[in-house]
Amino acid sequence: MQKVKIIRMQTHDVDEVFSLEELVHPNHHWSKDSFYNELANQLAHYYCIKDEKNKILGYIGFWQILEESHITTLAVHPEYRNIQLAQILMIQLISDCYRDKVKYITLEVRESNIAAISLYEKFLFESIGMRKNYYQDNGENALIMFTQNIWYDTFKDNFKKIKDNINKVQVLNDK
User: Which residue from 119, 134, 113 is spatially nearest to 25, judged by alpha carbons?
Assistant: First the structure.
């Protein structure tokens, strides 16, 4: 069983996060400055998921604006996919949303990114539209995905079920 911890991303994490960003998105990725700017943004929340040796295995970023949260980025190292790390990052995001009384979560995702779309659909995101030619590297369209109100029982019940089924990874307290 993989043991991991989730920590708030810090400026000293940016070099390693940027290396992972380049690996995951070789043709079009954020710059180091983009991550530094996001860490300085008071609306932004960024987390890393690290193994016991402090290697960054993935990260998530999102903005919280009033009653809405917008996912800006989510990535997991290719060697560590399919062990529920993206789900754990999503659980962190949604837990923050509950703590901060957020009602809705939204994002854009490449229409070709079937794995990401499946992850979001597992968390009851629905496609509500498309941004034509959204991605600068190849002009690919982005699906706009949105949740229902996360305080509705259907969402809360689904969220609890996902949390209860995390079994490939043990999340350690970072204390």
Answer: 113
CB 40 within 8 A of CB 48: no
Catalytic residue, chosen from 47, 98, 120, 121, is 120
Nearest to 112 by CA among 27, 39, 32, 55: 27
Beta partners for residue 90, in sequence order: none
- Global confidence as pTM: 0.92
Reference 97, options 136, 51, 151, 21; nearest CA is 151
120 among known catalytic residues: yes
Contacts of 17 (CB under 8 A, 6+ apart): 9, 35, 48, 56, 59
Please work out, in degrees rounded to the nearest 5, the angle formed at the alpha carbon of residue 127 by the alpha carbons of 39 and 17.
Answer: 25
For 147, phi then psi, to 5°, come to: -95, 160
User: Per-residue pLDDT tens for 113-160?
Assistant: 999 999 999 999 999 999 998 887 778 899 999 999 999 999 999 999
Distance CA 32, CA 38 (A): 10
Q: Give residue-wise pLDDT tens across range 30-88.
A: 999 999 999 999 999 999 999 999 999 999 999 999 999 999 999 999 999 989 999 99
Among the options 21, 46, 47, 108, which is catalytic? Answer: 108
